[in-house]
Amino acid sequence: MKKIKEKLSEIHILLFLKLIPYMFREYWIFTKHMARCKMSCYPEKLLTDILMTTHALEKAFSLNNPKKGFGVTKSMQLTNNIEKYISKYGYNSKLDVPISLIITYLNYQKETKYSDKKLDEVEIKIQKILSDINQPKAKFNKAGKISFSKETMLHLNDANFKTLARNRYSIRHFGKGDISEEILKEAIKIAQKSPSACNRQSYRVHIFSDKQKDIILSTQGGANSFYKEANKAILITGDLNRYYSTEMHLPYIDASLFAMSLMYALTYLGIASIPLTMGRKLSVLKQIQGMKIPQNEIPVILIAIGNYPDEVIVSQSERFSIDSFTTFH
Question: Cβ distance 307 to 153 under 8 Å?
C-alpha cells in the first residue's frame, strides 16, 4: 500500500487536482485585492495607478535623449488621478512625488519651448491642487532626474554596503564597451551567497548578447527606448524541479533574492544595470520561454546591463518614509 501511495504521489494529474483548492483560494484573494478591482473605491488602489503613471513619466528623464513633447497624455492622466484622489481622500505625503513630477515635467517642457493646449490644462489643474492643499511649494522637489559622473559610480567598489545600496540606480542609458564573461562570473559568484529555501539554489542564470539580447529585451517591452544601448541581458529563472506542491511561490522568492544580490554585485564591480519585470502577458512569457529556456524554469526577472556612460542620468525616484510601510508588532 505504501508503494502505491508513493507512485500516486508522483502522478501529474493527481498533483494538479490536489493543488486546485490552493489555486482557487489564491486567485480569488488576488483578484479581490488587486489594484484593478474596484480601484476607484480604495485609496491604496487608486494610489497604485498614480504611482505607475508617475514612474512611466519620470523614467523618460533618465533616457539619453528624451523625445521633445513626451508624456503629454500621461501628464494629463496623472494630474486627473491626483485631483480625483484628493477630492475623495484628501492630501497626504504619498502624493508628494507625483505632484513634484508634474511640476518638474511642466518646467522641462517650458525649458524646451514645447507648447500644447493640453499642457495648459495640466498647468491650471496642478496650480489649483497646490492652492487647495496649502502646502509649501519647496516641498515638491522630489521627482525628476539627478546626475553623477561615471567615476562616482565606479568608486562604489570602495564604499561600505549602506553607501553602495543607497547609490544603486536603474540605468537607462549605457556607455559603449563589452562586459566580459570573467566579470559576469565574478558578479554571479558574489551573488551565490544569497539565501534560498533549504539551500536548494534553484536560481538559474541565462545571459544573452548581440541579436538574442535585442530580441529578449524588445520582447519584454519595458526597454524599448534603450535596449540597443545595453550590452547584455541577464534572465534569472527559478527551477521548478527544486520545489514541492505547497511551494509555488518559492521559485520567485529565491530567484528574486539572487537577482537583487546580483545587481548589488554588478554595481560594486562598476557595471550599470536595470531590472525589468517578467509580470507580462502569457503570450510574452511564451516567447521568452521559447528562447531555449527549459520548460521547468520560470522566468522571474530580466536585467539589462552595460557600462556606465560618462554622465550618469537617473530618475530621482524618492522613496516613501519607512513609517508608511513598517509595523512593529
Answer: no
- Residue identified by cell 504619498 is 94
| C-alpha cell read off for 194 | 544569497
Strand, coil or helix: what is 254?
helix
Distance CA 237, CA 113 (A): 45
Burial (CB < 10 A; 0-12, 13-18, 19+), residue 78, is buried
In this structure, how many other beta carbons lie within 10 angstroms of the beta carbon of residue 74? 17
Residue 90 — φ and ψ, nearest 5°?
Answer: 85, 170
Residue 170 DSSP label: B
Three-state DSSP state, 192: coil
Which pLDDT belongs to residue 235? Answer: 97
Cα 20 versus chain centre, distance? 30
pLDDT of 15-31, one tens digit each?
Answer: 999 999 999 999 999 99
Residues sharing a CB contact under 8 Å with residue 93, sequence separation 6 or more, in sequence order: 320, 321, 324
Query: Which residues of 111-267 form beta strands (DSSP E)?
Result: 145-149, 203-209, 232-239
DSSP string, 70-108: TTHHHHHHHHHHHHHHHHHH---GGGHHHHHHHHHHHHH
268-290 pLDDT per residue, tens:
999 999 999 988 788 888 888 88
6 grid coordinates: 508513493
Contacts of 295 (CB under 8 A, 6+ apart): 289
Q: Is 62 exposed, middle or buried (0-12, 13-18, 19+ CB in 10 A)?
A: buried
Q: pTM for the full model?
A: 0.94
**Cα 228 to Cα 232: distance, rounded to the nearest angstrom:** 10
Nearest partner of 102 among 128, 79, 136, judged by Cα? 79
